[in-house]
Design goal:
Layout: H1 2-6, H2 8-19, H3 23-46, H4 51-70, H5 77-108, H6 115-139, H7 145-167, H8 170-174, H9 191-220, H10 229-240, H11 243-253, H12 256-276, H13 280-307, H14 314-338, H15 347-373
Helix pairs in contact: 2-7, 2-9, 3-5, 3-14, 4-5, 4-7, 5-14, 6-7, 6-10, 6-11, 6-13, 9-10, 9-12, 9-13, 9-14, 9-15, 10-13, 11-12, 11-13, 12-13, 12-15, 13-14, 14-15
C-alpha cells in the first residue's frame, strides 16, 4: 500500500527534471492513481465476501509489484497514466480486503487494539521506499535515474510480498471473510454519523493529498533545502509507522471524536507550516506532523466505519468511505495545479488544503456528537 499509493511522490522530482514535466502533468499522474483507487474501492464494495475476495487480495498485491516495475520501462505519458490508474485500483484492493481480513482475524481473537500496527504498515512502506530512492539517488543522479528508482521500489514490493504470504493465515488468503463481530457490538446502524464521517474523510482526502503528492517537490523548492526533499519523505514514513497505534490508543482513552479533532488540527497545522516559514525546522516539523496524522485519521475513520454498522456491513462500509476519500484525492492534485501562481509555488494550494482538513475535523466531531445523540 505504501508503495502502490505513494511511490510516485519521492520519484516525482527525478521524473520532472528528466522530462521537464509541468505541475499539471504531474498532478494528472497523481490524480489518475487516485481515480483508480476510487474505482478499486467501488469494486471492493460490490464484491461479496468469500473466495473472490481472497483472490482479489492476492491479485492486488501482485499487481502493485508488476505495475510499479513497468513504470521504468516506458517514457510515454499515456502509458504512465494507465499504469498509475491500475496501481490505484490494486492499492484499494490491498487496503479494503487487507483491512477486512486482518480486522476480522484480530476481532475474533479480541485483539482489536492491534489494528494500529496493521495500519502502520503503510508508513513503514513509505519510509522504506524513501530510503531506497535516497540510496539510488546517491548512486545515480543522471537523467535516467528515475528508471532505477522505480525498479528498486518494485524489488522492495516483491520482497515484502514474502511475509504477506507467509504470515497471513491460509483461510484469510483463500477467502476474505466478513468482519467478525466483537463482544457487545451493535446490530443497527445510523445514517447521519456515517454521512458526516464521510464528509470529513472526503475533505481529508482532498487536503492531505496535496502534501502526499508534492511534499518532496515543495520541500526541495525551499531555499537551501534542495537536498532535503527525499529526506523529508522518509521522515513522513517514520512518523507514520507508529502513528495509527498511537491515535487508536488516544481514542480508547478519550473518544474517537476527540482524537479525530486533535489529529485533524495537527495535520492542518503541518500542511500550512511551509507557507509560514521556509526554514529547515518548519519543513521537518511539517513532514513529521503530516506523517503522524494521515494514517491515524484513516485508522480512526475505518474503526468508526466498522463500529457504526452491524458486522456484516463493515467491509462495505469501509469500502464506501474509501471511495469517498478517493474522490477527494482525485480533486486535490488537480486543485493544487490550478492554484499554482508560478512553477513550483504551492503556497495557495497548501493554505486551501489546510482549510479543508480543518473543516474535516469539525465534521468528524459533529459525527461523534450525532452518534452519541442517537446512542
Amino acid at each position: 500500500m505504501g508503495i502502490g499509493r505513494f511511490a510516485f511522490t519521492p520519484i516525482l522530482p527525478a521524473m520532472r527534471d528528466a522530462f521537464g514535466l509541468s505541475t499539471a502533468t504531474l498532478g494528472a499522474l497523481a490524480s489518475v492513481n487516485y481515480l483508480g483507487y476510487l474505482v478499486g474501492a467501488l469494486v471492493a464494495a460490490a464484491l461479496p465476501p468469500g473466495r473472490a475476495s481472497g483472490l482479489a487480495l492476492r491479485g492486488s498485491v501482485l499487481t502493485v509489484i508488476v505495475v510499479t516495475a513497468l513504470m521504468a520501462t516506458t517514457a510515454a505519458i499515456p502509458l504512465w497514466l494507465i499504469l498509475r490508474f491500475v496501481a490505484g485500483v490494486a492499492s484499494a484492493g490491498v487496503f479494503v480486503f487487507g483491512s477486512a481480513a486482518v480486522l476480522s482475524q484480530i476481532a475474533g481473537e479480541g485483539r482489536l487494539d492491534l489494528s494500529g500496527w496493521f495500519f502502520g504498515g503503510v508508513g513503514a512502506g513509505i519510509a522504506t521506499a524513501g530510503v531506497v530512492v535516497l540510496v539510488l539517488e546517491r548512486l545515480n543522479d543522471g537523467p535516467g535515474a528515475w528508471r532505477g528508482e522505480w525498479l528498486g521500489i518494485a524489488a522492495l514490493a516483491a520482497a515484502l510480498t514474502i511475509p504477506c504470504w507467509a504470515w497471513l493465515p491460509r483461510e484469510v488468503l483463500l477467502a476474505v471473510r466478513p468482519i467478525a463481530p466483537a463482544p457487545g457490538e451493535r446490530r443497527d446502524w445510523r445514517l447521519l454519523p456515517l454521512v458526516l464521517l464521510g464528509g470529513a474523510y472526503f475533505l481529508e482526502g482532498l487536503g492531505y493529498i496535496v502534501a502526499g503528492t508534492f511534499l518532496v517537490a515543495i520541500v526541495g523548492a525551499l531555499p537551501g533545502l534542495a537536498e532535503f526533499g527525499t529526506g523529508a519523505w522518509i521522515l513522513v514514513g517514520l512518523a507514520a509507522a507508529p502513528s495509527a497505534n498511537l491515535w487508536t490508543r488516544v481514542a480508547a482513552r478519550v473518544s474517537p471524536a476527540a482524537a479525530l479533532l486533535v489529529v485533524y488540527l495537527a495535520q492542518a497545522l503541518g500542511l500550512v507550516l511551509p507557507v509560514l516559514s521556509g526554514e529547515a525546522w518548519a519543513a521537518a516539523t511539517s513532514a513529521i506532523l503530516f506523517g503522524s496524522t494521515f494514517i491515524g485519521i484513516t485508522a480512526l475513520t475505518v474503526g468508526e466505519a466498522r463500529r457504526l454498522v452491524p458486522p456484516p456491513l463493515a467491509t462495505r462500509s469501509i469500502a464506501s468511505l474509501t471511495a469517498v476519500f478517493g474522490l477527494g484525492q482525485i480533486i486535490g492534485p488537480l486543485l493544487a495545479a490550478a492554484l499554482e501562481e508560478r512553477p513550483g509555488d504551492f503556497n495557495r494550494a497548501l493554505v486551501v488544503a489546510s482549510g479543508a482538513v480543518l473543516i474535516g475535523g469539525l465534521l468528524a466531531v459533529a459525527s461523534g456528537l450525532a452518534e452519541r445523540r442517537h446512542a
